[in-house]
Each structure stands twice: as structure tokens, then as C-alpha cells.
Q: What sequence folds into this?
């Protein structure tokens, strides 16, 4: 059975609402060591300070961003804008075209309850969605 995004037209346009940057205690932003290094360099921080201030490890050993204030990403500024947007992790760059979201209609619609940009804006090409899904699968599987 082919994924949902292959059989329909998915619309998405980021509104900058920041809801995808809210962790609510159940979401994590996973990082590779390379992504962490790029972000650290972008911010001009020492390795030790960056690790203490921004990183955490889950019980299974995965590297993730540490918790921010008010269950929001630690990199959101007071205005709700991402301070590391040009170098944000793959997980952030590919949202909402994650395998677990774009694979079926139910999950796509459930994510639309959280993200006001899903279902709005231009149709996103299947090639773009395929590339995002493939990148996620390669990095997170």
C-alpha cells in the first residue's frame, strides 16, 4: 500500500505560529552530533557551554535538545522566532513531512489539529515530500 501523500495532494504553508516548536513534554527534537556542532558554531558557543545549556540524552542514548521554558523549544526567542533557523535540524526542516505524519490521512489530519499551516497554501510536490520522508527515514531509522 502506498503512503497517503502519494495518492493525494497535500497543502502546506508555514504560518510561523510556532506550534510545531512546542514540546508539551512528549515531543523531542533529535539531533545528530553534526547538527549539534553546526548549531553550536552558529551561536558561537563553547562545546561545554552548549552541551550543558542546550542538549540532553534520552534513556536510550539519543541526543535531543534540552527542555526550554513553557514547553517550547529552547531556541525560540521572546517573539516566538527560531534563533537557529538557518541551521535548524533536519527534523525541523522536514516538518510536517515526516513518515509518521504523511503516511496516512488520519495522522495527517491529526497533525493538522496542531499545525494551522497543514491543508493551506500551495500543493507541495510529491518529489519534495518524498525527499523529506526519505531524509527522515535515513536519519532516524
A:
Amino acid at each position: 500500500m502506498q503512503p497517503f501523500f502519494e495518492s493525494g495532494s497535500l497543502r502546506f504553508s508555514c504560518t510561523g505560529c510556532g506550534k510545531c516548536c512546542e514540546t508539551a513534554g512528549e515531543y523531542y527534537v533529535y539531533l545528530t552530533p553534526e547538527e549539534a556542532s553546526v548549531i553550536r558554531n552558529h551561536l558561537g558557543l563553547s562545546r561545554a557551554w552548549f552541551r550543558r545549556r542546550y542538549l540532553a540524552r534520552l534513556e536510550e542514548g539519543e541526543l535531543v535538545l534540552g527542555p526550554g521554558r513553557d514547553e517550547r523549544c529552547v531556541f525560540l526567542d521572546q517573539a516566538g522566532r527560531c534563533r537557529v533557523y538557518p541551521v535548524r535540524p533536519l527534523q525541523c526542516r522536514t516538518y510536517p513531512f515526516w513518515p509518521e505524519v504523511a503516511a496516512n490521512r488520519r495522522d495527517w489530519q491529526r497533525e493538522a489539529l496542531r499545525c494551522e499551516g497543514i491543508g493551506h497554501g500551495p500543493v507541495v510536490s510529491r518529489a519534495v515530500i518524498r525527499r523529506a520522508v526519505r531524509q527522515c527515514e535515513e536519519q532516524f531509522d
The chain is about 40% helix and 10% strand.
